[in-house]
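Chapter review: from sequence to fold.
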Amino acid sequence: MAEAEVNGNAKRKSINWAAVHRRMEAAAVALTQGGVSSPEAKREILRSRARSLARETEKEGMPGERLEVIEFLLAGERYAVEASYVREVYPLRELVSIPGTPAFVLGITSVRGKILSVIDIKKLFDLPEKGLTELDKIIVLQANGMEFGMHADAVVGMRPIALEDIQSPLPTLTGIRERYLRGITGDQVAVLDMGKLFSDKSLIVHEEVEI
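The token string follows.
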């Protein structure tokens, strides 16, 4: 294990003993005023209190929960989806448009021999469109027995995001854009709410397609 990692773990798990001692002194005063006369009883109560305080202090020093996400670009804006929903990221190659499908459905494509529908979040969020390039990717998403591709202008990569860093969407965001956002990070990454995406029946294309 590298020295930096060891030092980092030590910092996260360090205990504020000064605070523990102050609280122990307060506990000792409380014991005296409470009429506990046996020295052994006092020591046992103080030892128990010390263990409890140490656990509380250590817990307070632990880092918050983190969410692993795949970050990608849409119309120059940064978005992210939870990595647990992502099966793979695949280059957008052949795309076949299907007449009669909703505007947000770009078409269908074959990913490792499997036909997937591809949705375009830009259509849902009313973002500026651009022509397809070699950087365009399909983020293959799966959950609840469903699987589809989501178009991305480019994929930045995987990163962790602290849950406490995800703030509620801005009040200026209304309608469908607000509905599908879990929140926005301090560095302006919009985190999509995949649970809502997968549970929204209006996004499911029921028509069978013959290839």
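Two observations follow directly from the output. The radius of gyration is 26 Å. The chain has two domains: 3-61, 66-203.
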